[in-house]
Structures are given as structure tokens and as C-alpha cells.
Fold:
Amino acid sequence: MNALPVLVVEHEAQCPPGWMGQWFDEEGCAVDVRRPYRGDELPEQLDDHRSMVVLGGSMDAYSDERHPWLRGVKHLVRVAAQSHVPTLGICLGHQLAAVALGGAVQANPRGQQIGVLELGWSPKAVHDPLLGAVAAARVAVQWNNDLVVVPPVGTEILARTPAGELQAARFAPTVWGVQSHPEAGEEIVSAWAANDRDSAAERGVDVAAYVADVASAREELVSSWRPLAARFATLSREVARAW
Structure:
């Protein structure tokens, strides 16, 4: 099996590829992690990659002045949409993809979403080329303040919370976003909890309990979300064959 170059954009050291990186390796994908916050350059085009994953981060989708590489990420999302390169945005990556394609993001008026939360898949999700592989997943890890509130024109909504908040979508034929963190187990979430501990305590939130919930749900999370990497690799191979 030929290695498949997957461009992975990491925005912060505390938001690594995690399980997704491990699963891609197992699927025979060559994971090219770029860390622009450390000085790594992002490509202008995706000619040397078969697919792209944009990870999460604590900044918001409009922080281009403080984090200039976000402009490049949005550019690459548009390139991916135009050239039909499979692309997955995770949390911040989901929000960046939406903004890049004409949508809008804002802080959730209901407050931060954290913990192992239930998913509200639409009936159409099971037929989606990518997320259909995980449309039976019951729960996912979420740790976010912002939401996609205006999806790009043509978006297929694939999952919402009971309150109507967007959880998963296909923004373009080969561009998907998930507000959750399929890559994150308790090892990653523990670092986020440490950063949020003081502000969470002021709100009466026990983040340690949320980390414990993630640890308890580990087996279900892995079994539910591991198929996402396999399906993404399959889509990448289809692009590779087309080239």
C-alpha cells in the first residue's frame, strides 16, 4: 500500500493529532504535521497532499492578526473545496472551514460545551461519504466556546444538539467539519482541563469530573470514531487514483 500524504495542521502543542494520527498511521497514511506556531510553513496548494485535516486550538476563527497562519489555512480550505481534496476540520478547524467558505462563527450564548456529549445525527448522516462511517456514534468529546452559527451556502447539516447547535456538517462536496474532538482521549483533555481549571471553578464547573468521564468513555470513543480514519483514508486513496 502506498503511503498517502495527509496534511495535518496543528495550531497548538496541546492540540495534537492524538488518536487520529495513530489511526492514520495504521491506515498507511503518511502524516505530514505542520506546526505554523513553531515556524512551519504551510503549502500554497495541495499538489503534494491527497487530503487535509485541520485540528483544534484555543484561538477563534477570526484571530488572523494574532495568528497569521489562519489566513493560509482558510486559503487551503478553499483550494481543497475547489480541487475536491478530502478535508476534515476538527473543532477550530471545523469553524475555520465554515468561515473560509462563507459561513460565520460566534461564541455560544449558552456557554462552553465540555465533556462527553451526545450526538444528534440527522437521518441523512448515514449516507454521507465520510461521516456515514461514524453516524452510529452515540457520544463524542467536545471542548469549545464557539459555534458555527451561519453555515456556508450549500452545507449539508449532519448533526445538531437538541438545542440546534451545529455538531457536524459537510460544507462542500469534499470538506467536512465536526465540532467534537474524535482525536482526543483523557491524555489530551487533561491539558485542556488544566488550562480551564480556574475559570471553570468560577463557573462552578468541575473539569476533573469531565476528564474522568472521557477516561471512562475511552473504549466507546475509540470504537465509535476509529472508522472515521479508515473512511478518510479510503477517500484519500480515491483522490490518489484519480490523479
Remarks:
- The radius of gyration is 17 Å.
- Residues 4-242 form a domain with the Rossmann fold fold (CATH 3.40.50.880).
- The chain has one domain: 4-242.
- The mean pLDDT is 93.
